[in-house]
Specification:
mainly beta; Immunoglobulin-like; Methylamine Dehydrogenase, Chain H; five-stranded antiparallel β-sheet; five-stranded mixed β-sheet; 1 helix; 54 strands; about 0% helix; about 45% strand; elongated
Length: about 600
């Protein structure tokens, strides 16, 4: 004979403990598979769909005798996916009778896994991701988790979504609770402080010397380690990365779905993989600088900011009153040097003004970005209108001034003071050189002695045909290689100088100003200038958004194509080069 059964599948929980039956099944269930076995043989099998769940199933034509009822909950229709819960019950089936059977489902969750981008830094904002797993290590779908930080002074965690913010170094304990089973687990999350920085500016040299010389050996091939997509950060025009001791800093626009989406931000990234550690909203398009104690200095249009990398969203102090501020630099004396259009400001590490130099020619401004600070002769060199001025580092008193302005008498007999020969680059000093100051001024490269006298200029001959304004504008004067020089770089020992002209002409000179090699690049160059290693290897970007590497003898060894104009790259002690050109790219190099 045969019998019938009414099967009720229940899901006990803390809110509805037995005997009260609340939930029919786990909340992520899409189907339940039911099997009936008699003497280990399957006598009935069916899949019940979840339509806000029937609380019971009627089953007919069941063989009489002892029958085992099994129910398994699945996260997909058709009993697919990793099982969510299981249960079984044995019942005696009587002929021509209806037997009531109740199965209490038990979750298949055996443990939980916590993952997050490690190490978790102070200042980092990232989600804590929890997975429920069964005894075999397979993931079990869950409706979600609730989070609680047992050390909120170290790690602040949003209770609903697990978004965590590192606040202070130490070991934080996190408690999670699964929303269906209400099972809990605890995890330790160490929070790591960002260590003091190296006091580097472009990280290729001590920034207070200027000139983009590379103390570390960069890549010899264009092999990419990783690339941060523009879907995460959109880097601005000629953005420049900066290295601290642990992290890479860069300014750009946040493209991610965060509270800073669309905002201009200062980013901290892991140099090993490009992972964004934190983003702090600041309306700045300038290159930051990193002090020896790890403090980050950043300028907005009118303010210099000091930022603790462990608490990046709230500045330590601000120094207001600037006008179109340029990128700052940090001297070996830990003071911050920043130029705006009218003044050179020297600021103490505490945010107080030490001294200020006002432009002698305000209509032409203190142009070309950054000064150079000499650690030995206590001088600061800055562009002031059409001049290069040397100032005492302690007081700002003017020591000497080299005028690039020239008087010229035109064919009509009128004499005018021309600024067509004004500097077109920031001054640069070689860290191991003879104290000379290097600067580009329109069509020439200059080396000045520390007393302000001319050591040499390249080319050495005088300009001609300067009455022709069209020729002047396009930088195509007869006898002058490549036209207007946009910037230069000096090797650490001062034995080599690399300079690039707007036209794409690249020249590398010896210490005495003689030409070692030159080349004409395929595209114009309006970048921030080249970078040069001690062995004479030169890296330079052109307006086709390509980064070129030239060997010591002048041959091109590789090029890398980017999506936007490229700023000066940075190189760390492992030889990894970081290049900004729309996105951020890391190229493999050679460790020291």
């Amino acid at each position: 004979g045969q019998g019938r059964a009414t099967l009720r599948v229940t899901w006990p929980s803390a809110e509805h403990p037995p005997p009260a039956r609340g939930k029919f099944m786990p909340s992520t269930t899409q189907s339940i598979k039911i099997r009936l076995l008699r003497a280990s043989a399957v006598v009935h099998e069916d899949v019940v769909m979840n339509a806000n769940g029937p609380s019971q199933v009627d089953i007919g034509n069941i063989p009489v005798g002892e029958v085992q009822f099994e129910a398994t909950a699945y996260p997909e229709y058709g009993a697919a996916g990793n099982p969510l819960a299981r249960g079984s019950q044995t019942a005696q089936i009587e002929p021509n009778d209806i037997t009531s059977v109740t199965i209490d489902l038990t979750s298949t969750i055996a443990s939980f896994r916590l993952s997050y981008p490690a190490p978790f830094w102070v200042g980092q904002q990232d989600p804590l991701v929890v997975e429920a797993v069964d005894s075999a290590g397979n993931m079990v779908m869950s409706p979600g988790f609730l989070f609680q930080s047992n050390h909120p002074s170290l790690l602040e965690v949003n209770s609903d979504d697990g978004w965590a913010t590192g606040l202070a170094a130490g070991q934080a304990t996190i408690t999670i609770r699964e929303q269906d089973t209400l099972e809990t687990a605890t995890f330790d999350v160490p929070v790591q402080a960002i260590l003091p920085g190296r006091g580097l500016w472009f990280s290729m040299q001590q920034g207070y010397l200027n000139g983009s010389c590379m103390g570390n050996r960069g890549p010899t091939a264009g092999d990419a380690l990783w690339q941060l997509p523009e879907s995460e950060i959109r880097l601005g025009y000629r953005a420049t990365p900066v290295l601290g001791q642990e992290l890479v800093y860069v300014v750009g626009q946040d493209q991610r779905d965060r509270d800073t989406q669309g905002a201009q931000c200062l980013f901290a990234l892991d140099p090993a993989n490009g992972r964004i550690i934190w983003a702090a909203p600041y309306e700045s398009f300038n290159t930051p600088a990193v002090g020896r104690n790890g403090t980050i200095y950043l300028t907005t249009y009118d303010t210099l900011l000091a930022i603790d990398p462990n608490r990046p969203r709230q500045p330590l102090w601000s120094y207001p009153g600037l006008t179109n501020a340029h990128s700052p630099l940090v001297g070996d004396d830990n003071r911050i040097y920043v130029q705006d259009d009218l003044n050179l400001h020297v600021v103490s590490p505490e945010g107080e003004r030490v001294w200020m130099h006002s432009a002698a020619f305000p209509s032409y401004s203190l142009d070309h970005g950054q000064p150079a600070v000499h650690p030995v002769d206590d001088r600061v060199y800055a562009v002031d209108g059409g001049d290069l001025v040397a100032l005492l580092r302690t007081t700002g008193q003017e020591v000497w001034r080299y005028a690039f302005r020239r008087n010229h008498t035109y064919s009509n007999g009128n004499t005018y003071e021309l600024y067509d020969f004004a500097p077109t680059s920031s001054p640069a000093i070689a860290s191991l050189g003879d104290g000379g100051i290097y600067i580009a001024a329109q069509y020439k490269l200059y080396k000045l002695n520390s007393d302000g006298t001319l050591a040499w200029r390249y080319p050495a001959d005088d300009l001609s045909d300067i009455d022709n304004p069209v020729v002047k504008f396009f930088g195509e004067l007869p006898g002058f290689n490549g036209g207007i020089y946009s910037n230069l770089a000096v090797s650490t020992d001062g034995t080599q100088v690399a300079a690039v002209a707007v036209s794409g002409y690249l020249a590398v000179l010896a210490a005495d100003g003689t030409l070692r090699w030159d080349t004409v690049m395929a595209a114009a160059v309006q970048s921030d200038g080249p970078a040069i290693q001690a062995d004479g290897t030169v890296y330079v970007a052109d307006d086709s958004n390509a980064l070129h590497c030239y060997g010591p003898a002048g041959g091109e060894t590789f090029r890398v194509q980017m999506h936007n104009l490229i700023g000066i790259p940075a190189v760390d002690s492992q030889g990894t080069m970081f290049v900004c050109g729309g996105s951020l790219l890391a190229l493999a190099g050679e460790a020291d």
